[in-house]
Amino acid sequence: MIQRKIRRSSQERSDLFDGLPDDILLSILCKLSSTARCPSDFISILLTCKRLNRLGLHPLVLSKSGSKAFAIGAKNWSEQAHGFMKRCVAAGSVEACYTLGMIRFYCLQNRGSGASLMAKAAIRSHAQSLYSLAVIQFNGSGGSKNSKDLRAGVALCGRAAYLGHVDAIRELGHCLQDGYGVRPNAAEGRRLLVQAAARELASVLRAVAPSALHALTWQLQNKKPQRNSNLSLLSEFGLNNLNATSMEAHPVNRFLTEWFGSFDPGSGKGLRMCSNSGCGRPETRRNEFRRCSACGAVNYCSRACQAQDWKMRHKGECSPVDPLVVDLAGADPLIVNLDGDDDGIGDDRTGEAGGDGGGPVE
Ligand SMILES: [Zn+2]
Ligand SMILES: [Zn+2]
């Protein structure tokens, strides 16, 4: 009697679920795939039952998948993971295009396919893809030093900056200050560097505790940053230690860092990783990245990475070979190009970091 009751009530429950129309479930699953905090959030739904498996793999659901749905560790990379990403790419997910594009370009060294996947996302105004393609153009990644296309890099950076990508705004600011791939405009460059720092500050504030927010509000009310200061906005307000933890890297940067942390990026070819720990980009040929002009001990894929690493770590570690290279106000030294060509990012850049706390680069 009791067993019959239990059976009847479980039948009623399954009837309720079965009674839900597919389009309602699809809309819930779309929301889930776009907001999943990790791959298992989404995968566990697929394993629940045949119906959720069928609907979860519907192209509409896959097309909405967010970046964290692909946040797998490099050690978990498999043909199945590759197949799942390809399926999401086919469904039209821009995040899948970008993530798989980066993995193919850098990790699997399938440059053409990787770049075209990123281009597919960039056409649909995916800021990360636009910025990553800009880095590839600035460095001539995947080709020779003659493959660098600075104008294309600036154009891509400009589009990503317009969409609010902080690293792109910072990179564009440095380009304008240094006349790198674009006519120099120091005032506009400075304005962009300040804007990048302000946006970074805003993202820091969203992540810090309310007590820190109160302290900052007090400081903002009682202290005006100096216009021509060489310090970043964060350090102007005494917040230079906050950004280390609150600026969250894109999952694919963590994948790259892990991938090249466990496998030798150069396989003995003398290739180096970007010294900014949150980046993970490796060189695709020797001396592709620019190095710190003061110590020569660190290398960066971009000015944005150099500026970020300068604030978070390298400023305290850099020991100049020639102390005159870095000015005493604490400006970031330049990065110099090791490819042997003078493309404007090298020796003609001075220690003036434009207030963004960049760091020396050759
Ligand atoms: Zn980098
Ligand atoms: Zn240095």
TrEMBL record:
Keywords: Metal-binding, Zinc, Zinc-finger. PANTHER family: MYND DOMAIN-CONTAINING (PTHR46758), OJ1485_B09.11 PROTEIN (PTHR46758:SF2). This is MYND-type domain-containing protein. The lineage of its organism: Eukaryota, Viridiplantae, Streptophyta, Embryophyta, Tracheophyta. Residues 352-362 have a biased composition (Gly residues). InterPro entries: At2g35280_TPR_dom, At5g50450/At1g67340-like, F-box-like_dom_sf, TPR-like_helical_dom_sf, Znf_MYND. Residues 339-362 are annotated as: Disordered. GO terms for molecular function: zinc ion binding. Residues 276-318 form the MYND-type domain.
